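Re: [help] complex structure
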Amino acid sequence: MRIHCNDEQLEVPEDCSLVSIIQRFNEQEGALAVAVNLTIIPTSRWQLQTLEEGDVVDIFTLVAGG
Amino acid sequence: MLSIAEQSFSSRLLTGTGKFGHPDILKAALVASRTSMVTLALKRLNRQHQQDSTLQVLRTLPVTLLPNTSGAATANEAVYAAKLARELLGTPWVKLEIHPDQRFLLPDPVETLRAAEQLCEAGFHVLPYCHADPVLCKRLEEVGCAAVMPLGAPIGTNQGLQTRDFLQIIIEQSNVPVIVDAGIGRPSQACEAMEMGADAVLVNTAIATSSDPVATASAFAKAVEAGRESFLAGAPLAQRNASATSPFTQFLETLS
Amino acid sequence: MKSADALRQYDWDDVSLTLYAKTQRDVQSALRHPAPGWQEFLALISPAAEASLPSMAEKANALTRQRFGHTVSMFVPLYLSNLCANECTYCGFTMSNKIRRVKLSPQQIKDEVRAIKTMGFDSLLLVTGEHETKAGMAYFNEVIPLIRPHFSHLAMEVQPLSTDDYRKLVKLGVDSVLVYQETYHRAHYGQYHLRGQKQDFDWRLETPDRLGEAGINKIGLGALLGLSDWRTDSALTAIHLYLLQKAYWKTRFSIAFPRIKPCAGDQFSPVSDITDKQLVQLICAYRICFPEVELSLSTRESATFRDSVVPLAINQLSAASQTQPGGYSEKSDALEQFSTEDTRSANDVAANLLAQGIEPVWTDWLQQFGR
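Output below.
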């Protein structure tokens, strides 16, 4: 199925979990915030959240800024 | 000691982490600045994303992290960003920054007030970046902001306290800390803000883009301390002679 | 109660010592200060500043013109009732005084309003003694609507009310409420106020806070000069003003300078005498340290004094006042609260002002939307 992730379209398996998407980015622990369809998903729920066709996933990190 | 939202901070110099050349320089500059509160921005990851080590660096320092909502153009986006940052860091602190104007990066007062109200209600310690508008600052204070952050001049311009007359009014009227943010280009300008009675200043560009960020950071630290001491001591005044006689006040002779 | 709580931290003796210790150097410093604050106010009202009165007057005048132009607002008091449930040793309306007690009826009020309008006034101050049951909110609810449509500005000086009652007054269209602490010296206050609700020092002290909470447009403060050391009382009035300005940023403020004057009844003599020159010093100190605050002078003061001092730094003036209930439409034989010194007609007072280059303003043009 198709989902959006950070402005990219991704082709993923039907029962894809959120955590598998996050792992693609190879970021350190405690460095990411994730939202699905504008709803923030707490870290504790990443494992449990499954994705559906057309879901919009946003993955944020903190970077330098004023 | 600077107190914001009932938390104490040893330094009245807040710093930003943007525009530095290298994480080592960033770290050395922050240490030299003796800052105790540092801003960060949120960014979406992309495929070509290079690891940004800012957060890693900051976690090795005794500083409070202040995520900002830079990039947000509306109240809704800012609230979203603040919640993302809270989820990431587990912190109630947020620097509310909404600039739909991408040329001058001037803050949107309407969206900022709306977002501030929502975020204060959601339990955030909101530090709103805003224009040096005394009434706006009172409105932000009224909705529960932990401090106000009026600008001295547009971001990155290093023009100093262009808004000084209004900063003075804000400082006089405010019941929450006043942190002058944006536009401070030289340590003397930071000193001036503190002498006027500002509670703190935030400096980013002036340190990050200087040819020697570490030395500049140290200079800013000293300037902020000097300005604060001077303010507390009650600075001496410029001489202005008041004329002592005038026919207008002659009637005073006739009074008992 | 934001300002009252902060105010209670100030110790009378400490304030007194500080102000009496001010030197000529402090005074000069205060006069040159770009943004004089409370410490500068203390210096300017101290004995050390007496010699600098001409400089103070010069500066006060310049600030007044800059802020207010060449105008002075005219207002008149209408005493609605002299019923009073307090025993105050310095006041003619004190409850034990066997005087004829009057409370104006709606018809009498209409007559008074008509008479006052012919005098030219458009700004009115309603005054009552302090009697909650006989001249309280029920009475105000009844009479204010009769009065309000005829004036562009309506002020009240009555007993301290609750925040809710003040909210109701705001809804009825009251623009301003004056409440004077009389004296900020707690012990003296207890000696002057022997019976009645007015005995409660703190309830009175918190009144401006309740007014601020209720969203009243203007709050009038003051001390009755002479009840205690006038300088220290003024110092505390000033700090009260600072604290209130900080707490209620949308409100404007006025200061009055009532000096103890003889009244019928008890042989009352003031503790502290404030001379004419000292009163001018006080007025100038306020103007210098609070450039935006409105300063008010009543007909308690003589014509000569008012003619010289009003153009200096005063913003509001009453004229041709009757300080007993009624008295405008018919001669009243009820007792005056205090005797007035300047008994000139409103037109005469206005003419004198004009002759000095000051325009008397009768109408307050600040229209309030949604009233």
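The first strand of chain B starts at residue 2 and ends at 4.
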